[in-house]
Here is the input.
Amino acid sequence: MTGKCRFDFQDTQVFVVGGTSGINLGIALAFAAAGARVAVASRSQDKVAAALAQLRAISPREHLGVSFDVRDKDAVANGFSVVAEAFGWLDVLISGAAGNFPAAAASLSENGFKSVMDIDLLGSFQVLKQAYPLMRRPGSNIIQISAPQAAIAMPGQVHVCAAKAGVDMLTRTLAMEWGNEGIRINSLVPGPIAGTEGFERLAPGEALQRRVAASVPMQRNGSVTDIASAALFLASEAADYITGAVLPVDGGWSLGGASMAMAELGQMAARQDSGEHR
Ligand code: COA
Ligand code: NAP
Here is the structure.
């Protein structure tokens, strides 16, 4: 995996939380390919080890992997102290850990709602708070991985819509609080990204995914490389005056097609929700 764009991150230390699969792993690998030293974290030690092996195959830098659940405040703090010990400081933080499943609100338990809020929103808050002391210098920057559900209502996604809307407000609020220290923070909003867990959960199977592609103005679903390239840009000096932005990287999907496709997919998923998790 390499970003489409050429950026030099030789002198850069990057931590990708939730960076062991899918979009976030693609971002981690793109930073490594651009010369950065990279740390990744997620719950599964096996996924962390596999991601680390991929990073090491790209470059001989002293990359790092740590395992924690963003819902466990003490574990997050321990994970960050391991990264702080090895790296000393962070130049770039990617906050991308998330959980998703389709469920109609009427059959979604309080704990189901809370699980996604705890991972996506409270988890992001804990991650940002832990990162802050390692990033208090001009030029450092944070990218949060948001989702179209933050701004577009989707049936069967009340938990994700609420959580990701909160994620974007964390971005905007902290851009105001931390801007005077030179720390930038932005949200990236991927459209439908082919070959990822998140897309497969909401649009299972090739036929549905082709229909989604037809609703995108650019007539294709996105790739992990599309998102990784945008992350490299946002983290680079080329984006030096961009903070508090919520940037769709979606082939124009959010201009209209997303509302219709997400309504259709969500209604389908909500209808099929058996309520078996209640
Ligand atoms: N429909 C309705 N409720 C569901 C559900 C579903 N498909 N899947 C889980 N839940 C509910 C559970 O029933 C439980 O609530 P309860 O205690 O009231 O029964 C609650 O959510 C927590 O479930 P649990 O399986 O214990 O959660 P977990 O902590 O093991 O996993 C998830 C968290 C549920 C978010 C899981 O999907 C996950 O780990 N996702 C990560 C990968 C992912 O989602 N990738 C896409 C990113 S966009
Ligand atoms: P993914 O492969 O499932 O990635 C999720 C990552 O987060 C994994 O590394 C996972 O690893 C980690 N994670 C999950 N729960 C965690 C927890 N509680 N604590 C720590 N780490 C946790 O999914 P993806 O589809 O690529 O999605 C990545 C991001 O893009 C998410 O923020 C998602 O909302 C966003 N997004 C995706 C799409 C899409 O089309 N796929 C579209 C819009 C937005 P472990 O399982 O090891 O914890």
Q: What stands out?
A: Residues 27 and 36 are 11 Å apart (CA to CA).
